[in-house]
Design goal:
The protein is built from 11 helices and 11 strands. It has about 375 residues and is of the alpha+beta class.
Length: about 375
């Protein structure tokens, strides 16, 4: 069993570099002037190892699944249906995700739809992937004679998880959004020194929340198997005792907690308890903090619009393409909304208006001549 051991430093490095074990996904959504949509999703497919095929003297390239079959390892977050067209590239190519952060891609799926809402309605996926795979997407249209105005919105829902200690006990709603989604709000009035001190305090509160949740989860796991001690009686004193909540022990798993309990009660009972039930304790702890596995799942959401952009919250704009980064950190405390507004000129409206103006001017001229 793979045991999760993520320290404060490790998570901080991951957050800063975007490194993660799962493959990155690139999703390109192209909206046509008539509202129809074409979507392409790129990922890294886990293909059969060619060395094994060479050893067997066979070519396994022909055994790659066709469109109506599943892709190896299916990295696309949702179950593929036959209407998705699959394109495989001979070799993986690197794609530049958000600056210097690159990832490899070797397979693409694509599909046309009459509206953007159609994609999310048809998606079938595991519950733990719902937040990433099935956002709520919409494209609203308003007629304005000379222009038709469009309002695009995609909402990725907050990750679904339970934590013994709510984040509201440590960070305000505004601080939560600032920390995970970079919504500066009124904080953009701060200078560098003020922002550094403020973010340092938010950072400490965030990790205090994380550490306390790990402690509470581990405490319940150990307590459930403890028969010789009444841990509830000493619960508060146990939490405040010693240096268990230091930077070195930011993630208090059952093993760390048992060592601390041994010191507190001057015994070896808890270390032996952990060794006896190690697999069960680790499994329960891993399941309880499984949200960590999804914090760095990343999607490059790229939207290609057909008209003139008038408003958006996209952090990156390249020509007619709007780009958002969607990951678990942005979905940790709240929904993450992508929005854009654009307009398309109604050429016929300009022509009709021009003709009407010409007729009106001509009519006035004709009347003026008739009066003379």
């Amino acid at each position: 069993m793979k045991k999760i051991k993520i320290s404060l430093t490790a998570l901080a490095i991951l957050a800063a570099t975007g490194c993660k074990t799962n493959d990155k996904i690139r999703m390109v959504t192209t909206i046509a002037p008539n509202g129809q949509v074409h979507r392409e999703i790129y990922a890294l497919e886990n293909r059969p190892v060619q060395e094994e095929a060479d050893m067997e003297g066979t070519d396994k390239s022909n055994e790659l699944p066709v469109a109506e079959k599943e892709i190896y390892g299916n990295p696309f977050l949702f179950a593929l249906t036959p209407d998705w067209e699959i394109t495989r590239f001979d070799t993986a190519f690197k794609y530049n995700f958000w600056g210097n952060d690159s990832g490899e891609l070797n397979v693409k799926i694509s599909k046309d739809a009459a509206s953007i809402e159609q994609y999310s309605k048809e998606i079938q996926c595991d519950k733990d992937k719902q937040s990433y795979a099935a956002p709520e997407e919409s494209l609203m249209k308003k007629f304005r004679w000379f222009y038709t105005c469009y309002s695009f919105k995609t909402v990725y829902k907050k990750l679904q998880y339970e934590s013994p200690v709510p984040i509201d006990d440590h960070l305000s709603k505004e601080e939560q959004i600032l920390w995970t989604q970079r919504n500066m709000g009124g904080y953009n009035l701060m200078n560098g020194f003020e922002m550094y001190n403020y973010l340092d305090d938010v950072n400490r509160q965030f990790w205090a929340w994380y550490s306390l949740n790990c402690w509470e989860i581990s405490f319940e796991i150990v307590k459930k198997l403890t028969t010789e001690y009444d841990l509830d009686t000493d619960r508060e004193d146990l939490y405040n005792n010693g240096d268990i909540l230091t930077e070195k022990n930011n993630e208090i798993d059952p093993e760390v907690l048992c060592s601390s309990l041994d010191i507190y009660y001057k015994t070896t009972y808890f270390s032996k308890l952990y060794q006896t039930h190690k697999e069960l304790m680790d499994k329960d702890f891993e399941a309880a903090i499984s949200v960590i596995n999804h914090l760095f799942d990343e999607i490059s959401y790229e939207l290609v619009i057909p008209g003139k952009l008038t408003k958006t919250n996209a952090p990156l704009i390249q020509s007619d393409t709007l780009i958002w980064k969607v990951d678990g950190m942005r979905l940790l405390f709240d929904d993450y909304a992508l929005s854009a507004e654009y307009r398309i000129a109604n050429i016929w409206a300009f022509i009709v208006s021009g003709v009407v103006i010409l007729i009106a001017v001509g009519s006035l001229g004709w009347r003026w001549r008739m009066r003379r």
